[in-house]
Protein: Cytosolic Fe-S cluster assembly factor NUBP1 homolog
Amino acid sequence: MSDTLQPLPHNCPGVESKDAGKASSCQGCPNAGFCSSGLAGQNTALQNADAVEIARRLYSVRNIFIVISGKGGVGKSTIATNVARALAINENVSVGLLDIDVCGPSIPRTMNLESEEVHNSMSGWSPVFVTENLSVMSCGFLLPSLDDAVIWRGPKKNGLIKQFLKDVDWGDLDYLIIDTPPGTSDEHISIVNYLKECSNVRGAIIVSTPQEIALLDVRKQIDFCKRVNLNIVGLVENMSTFVCPKCSKSSVIFTPSTGGAQKVCDEYQIELLGRIPLDPIIGMSCDEGTSLYDLNDTSPSVEALKQMVQTISKKYETENKI
Structure:
């Protein structure tokens, strides 16, 4: 046996193939034994049935976006929050925000919903409403305290994600924004598999900061999306610059040593959705759970966020104006 780890196969035959776990590309894969046993195929059949049921549940949602990031701390939940709030500025647009960051749910705080709980109705779990047209569901609502650590392995996380998708009664939504944890692990694989029968999934919004240490993981996110056939809506460069609130001078805080998000977008031919300035008002609004758009409607960060959301909505819903 080799003393070194073997790379995972890029040409996986798939668990439903008769060559599952037996093909030459399976050599060195830690899952080869499981796949060749046939159990993986049984699991896939169950997942397919779940995916069909989830597609029926989410049939009344017009557009689903999955917000992802390769690295933590780049502002993914901040972007997800402010995308949802910006879309909901139009009172005729119904928006849902689903937080599947099981181990680090931030949305209850950013939406000022920390004391809320999940309630059952005849039609399923009821989301918590921020406004009449903005509703939220988070695993944080299931915890006695947001300070409690969630020490769960993959199967339990996947079970909760499936329950959120199958049991939450969102009603008719124009947009469902899904906030995920950083990386490309259990939650991401699960959400893609469970939504594979949904024709209303528009794709992934990738969030990064300008420096190369963050963009390294963006490239992994792009590769993940390609390998699971998840469309990439575009890339958001968060904390792009700092605009002084007194003199309005723009300064670069995180130096884009390799060209920043624009270089990655050019390299992979994906759209740069926007550059969001580093702004204390964004952090303050998330900490306080208030709407950024009610605090300061003229700051560069607010204008950049609105423009970014307008770009997204125009691609899929040209009649929705923000």
Q: What stands out?
A: The chain has one domain: 31-316. Residues 31-316 form a domain with the Rossmann fold fold (CATH 3.40.50.300). DSSP finds eleven helices and eleven strands in the chain. Residues 1-8 have pLDDT under 50 and may be disordered.
